[in-house]
Amino acid sequence: MQFDQSQRIRMERAHVRAWPALRTANIEGWLWRASGGGSQRANSVSTVDFTGNDPEAAIDAVEVRYRAEGMTPRFQAFDETEPHGLPERLRRRGYRQTEATITLCKQPDPLLSGDVEARDHAWDGWRAVYLGQITENRREMNSRILDRIPQPAAFFAARLDRELAATALCVIDAGCAVVECVATDTPARRRGAARLVMQALEAWAAEQGCDLLCLQVVESNGPAVALYAGLGFQTAARNSFWMPSDP
């Protein structure tokens, strides 16, 4: 499956809206985000759209706002970032790339699934599995963001031996089904729980009439990339985070 520019932009916008930062501001079309905790995405500038005429002045405004908050400036760029030369501008200003993620995508198909529960909110058991698998410095912030997830959305949990074993979240936006919060409880790993929850999520996305099922994953996370490749996902775009070399 080939992905064109309009699809990559639609997917990126959907990802931005699916995981809403706790505080935002519009800077010449860029979305400034701040949430605290250890998340790069929720504490960086989304650069899908740019409406200004002076990128250097916009970068200055971003830096001023972050530093007024006692935060390190951080930008998130991707294949269709506006303006297109932003990463090179940042590099010239002493920024370095800190992490790369890839956007994976496929057309959703109805699939049979096993013992999977779905609700329209993150219940206590779901939160226990998901929050237990992320770093401590992200738990409080992510828990607050979970209360802000836009609808339509569905929270999925797969069971093994009657116990919740894996989680996932799907948020619908502009025909995109965005996958978030895929996590597997440590004792349940390598037992197919993540595949079960993803199959149920995909079936639900197909029922919603979505034409794209997409997610973002750290490029160096080999096991996760392999799982999604086995489910038919293909690389659609590449994202990168940038921050000053000397914060």
Task: Walk me through what this model shows.
32% of the residues lie in helices and 32% in strands. The chain has 247 residues and is α+β, with helices and mostly antiparallel strands. It folds into 2 domains: 5-102 and 239-244, no CATH class; 108-210, Gcn5-related N-acetyltransferase (GNAT) (Aminopeptidase), CATH 3.40.630.30. It has a 9-stranded mixed sheet with strand order 3-4-11-5-10-9-8-7-6, sandwiched between helices. The model has no long low-confidence stretch (mean pLDDT 95).
Number of helices, where a helix is a run of at least 4 consecutive DSSP H or I residues: 7
Question: What is the average of the pLDDT values?
Answer: 95
Overall helicity: 25-40%
Number of distinct beta strands: 11
Please give the largest β-sheet.
Answer: 9 strands, mixed
Q: Per the principal axes of the C-alpha atoms, what is the gross shape?
A: globular
Count of distinct structural domains: 2
Strand order of the largest sheet: 3-4-11-5-10-9-8-7-6
| Oligomeric grouping of the chains | single chain
Distance between the termini: 40 Å
% residues in beta strands: 25-35%
List the uncertain runs: none
The SSE order reads HEEEHEHEEHHEEEHEHE
Radius of gyration: 18 Å
